[in-house]
Each structure stands twice: as C-alpha cells, then as structure tokens.
Design brief:
FAD/NAD(P)-binding domain; alpha/beta; 14 helices; Enolase-like, domain 1; seven-stranded mixed sheet; about 450 residues; five-stranded parallel sheet; 3 domains
C-alpha cells in the first residue's frame, strides 16, 4: 500500500487545485511546498503585481480629478506603506489557500521534494513518501542570463515586492509583458524608467497595432527605450549605484536593475533523471494531452510544462488531471482562444488570432475593424491618451477570430468579449447587439 493515492510537488495554483479536486473524489492526497502555499501568482506574481498596478493608477487619477472638481492638497506617495499592505494581503491569501487544503484533508509537507523513481518521493527532511500517482506542479522561475555582475547586482520580479525603498532610476531588461508592466508601475511611482531590449520590438506575439500604441503612450509618459541593446557588464559603484556597460547603446548609471527576460521551468534538482522524466530543450517537462510525463504514473501541470504560462491555464490543467485520474472522467484542455492581458499603463488585452496570425492562417482572407478613440474620462481630464480596439474577422464565414484592445479597463472588458470568440460568433452578431451607452465597451459593437 502506498502512503498516498496522489502526492503533489508544488503548492501553486495548479497543484492546489489538483489536490483539492482529487481529495473531493475520495483520494488521499499529500502536497509538498518548500516556500509558501499559493505559488508564483499569489506570493510573487499576478496578485501582488496587480495590487501595485492599482496603486500606480492613483498617480494619474489624482491629476485627472482636478478637472472633475476635486481639490487634493499635499498628496504624497509612501512606497513602504503600499509594500507592507500588499505583503499583508499576500499573507491573508496564503492563509486561505492553506485553509482550503486543510478543509479537504490534504496533508502539507513544508519541505523540498524530489522524485526518487518507482513511485517514491524524497523529502528534504529525510522522509521518503510513496504514492500511486505523482504530480509535478513546481512552476517556473525568472531567468537571468550569464552576464558579468548580473546575478550579483540585478533583481527579478520576485524581489520587487520587498524593495526597501523606491529607486530613483531603474533599468528594466526585457520587452515582454513583465517588463512593460513594471515599467508602467515604477514610472507612475516617480522613478526614471529605462527599458533595455535586445530586439527591436516590445511584446512579441501581441497584435502589432496594440504594441505600437503602447510604445507610443509609454514614451509620452516618459519611459525611455533602448532597442537592440545588450549588457556587457554590471558593476556596483561606491555610492551604491550600478554602472551598466552596454553594447548597442550608451552606458548608464541606475539605482536598480530589474531583469524581466522571461521565465524558465523550475526543474533543477527535481530528480527527473532518476524517475526517467524527459524534458524539452529549455527544461520544460514533456507531457501529453492528459498531463502524463514519460514516466509511469508521473504527471505535470502548469508552468513547468511547455504550454501556456498562465495561472488560469494551470488551474484548469490541475482540475482536468484530478477529474480524469480520480473522478472517472475524460477531460483535456482546449488551448485555443485563451484570453491574455498586459497590465501596463494603459493595459492591453487580447484573445484569438492577431491580424498577422490570421493572415498567415487564413490565407489573407480576413477583414479588420478598428476603433481609435479617447475615453470620455480622458477627454474631460485633458489627457490625450487614445484607446484602440480591433476585431479580426474571417472573411469566408464572418466569424470574429480575434479581439485586441488597449485602453482603460481593457482586460475587464475583454473577459466577456472572449466568450464571443470562443463561441464562434460573427461580426453580424456583434453588429446586431445594441450598444450600452456611454461606455468604452460599446465600441466593440459599433465598428463598421
């Protein structure tokens, strides 16, 4: 008899969901977590970052409110207060995740776990656990390249939430969503922000018009960009500042260097070789549509696999795994039309095919409809920032195959609009829907 029907390595979003659902189906479940329950999203990712985004929005709201009749004197920003309040909220959420596991009789092991082969898991406290099925859900970690001085002096997104003070000058390496989100946050808090990108574009993979609009707005807000630039060396100077020796742009001095150059699966020292679990070139665990690895009775979900690195995707994978293995169901995940967002300033949101993807996939038989406008709030506030919405339509059948947006509350609007794309609705269906006025979202049904 094994100690557990299921043993999960990693108590992030996917691991916790799989544990809870498996236990609800009657399985005896154990879970190992070496740091904190909740994983990247709750502890050091999307949740605390979104709280910083909310905090950053007040910078512009306090400027704009004057035109709406408000007179606010003596406004100031206290980084330590926001940082500590966010940390307290993270503590609260971790407690809820622990409570969820406890309520479902999932036993938590607060230590590191490694595969030992043959249905065994070795814990860092010296114990060995046996399980009928093992699920790997350890997520991913920030990537820092091998550049002189970087690992000694640079920080990652994990460290932002613990900064003792707000940097006056910060350089952010990378051009993806993490880089642009933190660029917007620090810029609104008053830091001088420079994005350093080794390519000539930001947000590769997003719709071109959306990323061009974000670049334009970001530059207007005062964020500097250095394209086709690479790091040669990072040195700490006597006054505590950092000297960045560059290739492709001028050297610079900053107070903080943040690397946001992607995330890699957290598979180091996990015992994969011993259990004969195969990985891809970048370390991601190979799985099939049922989350099975190349080892018998070993499975994997979430960012540790080479699929879509999004928390809701990991949750769905964990749920489908538990239903299939312990609930007598046959469940797989549909990875088409997964909505995504960049919580930049302003935010971007999208679902389905971008315009270029649609042209490649549909042989050019597409139509696009756009609305380029200023939100009513921005008009009265005197803010010239413009929003942009786009519908990508398959001309052969009138189906809306993509929606892309940049503007205030774009992610909130896109979540509902994504249902239409998933359901295969047509442009005519959009046109026949009565507009909800006055809203920004009404632009989705007014494009002609």
């Amino acid at each position: 008899m094994s100690d557990y029907d299921l043993f999960v390595i990693g108590a992030g979003s996917g691991g916790v969901r799989a544990s809870r659902i498996a236990a609800s189906h009657g399985a005896k479940v154990g879970i190992a977590e070496e740091y904190r329950v909740g994983g990247t999203c709750v502890i050091r990712g999307c949740v605390p970052k979104k709280l910083l985004v909310y905090g950053a929005h007040f910078a512009e709201d306090l400027q704009d409110c004057v035109k709406f009749g408000w007179d606010i004197e003596g406004k100031s920003f206290d980084w330590a207060k926001l940082r500590d309040n966010v940390a307290a909220e993270v503590d609260r959420l971790e407690g809820l995740y622990r409570q969820t596991l406890g309520n479902n009789d999932v036993e938590i092991f607060e230590c590191r776990a490694r595969l030992a082969g043959g249905g065994k898991v070795e814990l860092s406290d010296g114990r060995t656990i046996t399980a009928d099925k093992i699920l790997i859900a350890v997520g991913a970690e920030p990537f820092i390249p091998e550049i002189e001085g970087c690992k000694d002096h640079a920080i990652t997104s994990n460290d932002v939430f613990h900064l003792p003070e707000l940097p006056k000058r910060i350089a952010i390496a990378g051009g993806g969503y993490i880089a642009n989100e933190f660029a917007g946050i620090f810029n609104e808090f008053g830091s001088k922000v420079t994005i350093i990108n080794r390519s000539d574009q930001i947000l590769r993979g997003y719709d071109e018009q959306m990323r061009d609009r974000l670049l334009q707005i970001s530059m207007t807000k005062g964020i500097d960009f250095r394209f086709n630039a690479k790091f040669k060396k990072v040195e700490k100077q006597g006054d505590g500042s950092l000297l960045l020796t560059m290739d492709g742009c001028d050297d610079m001095e900053v107070d903080q260097l943040l690397f946001a150059t992607g995330r890699v699966p957290n598979t180091q020292d996990l015992g994969l070789d011993k259990a004969r679990v195969e990985t891809e070139d970048r370390g991601a665990i190979k799985v099939d549509e049922y989350n099975r690895t190349t080892a018998e009775d070993v499975y994997a979900v979430g960012d540790v696999t080479d699929r879509i690195q999004l928390t809701p995707v990991a949750i769905r994978e964990g749920h489908a795994f538990a239903d299939t293995q312990f609930g007598g169901m046959d469940r797989t995940i549909d990875y088409d039309n997964v909505p995504n967002a960049v919580f930049s300033h302003p935010p971007i949101a999208g679902v389905g095919l971008t315009e270029s993807e649609a042209r490649n996939k549909l042989g050019g038989q597409i139509k696009t409809f756009t609305s380029d406008f200023r939100a009513m709030k921005n008009v009265l506030a005197g803010r010239n920032e413009r929003s942009l919405y786009k519908l990508v339509v398959d001309a052969s059948n009138d189906r809306v195959v993509g929606i892309h947006m940049i503007g205030p509350e774009a992610p909130e609007i896109l979540q509902a609009a994504a249902i239409a794309v998933k359901a295969g609705l047509t442009k005519s269906d959009f046109d026949e829907t009565v507009a909800l006025h006055p809203t920004m979202a009404e632009e989705l049904v007014l494009m002609r």
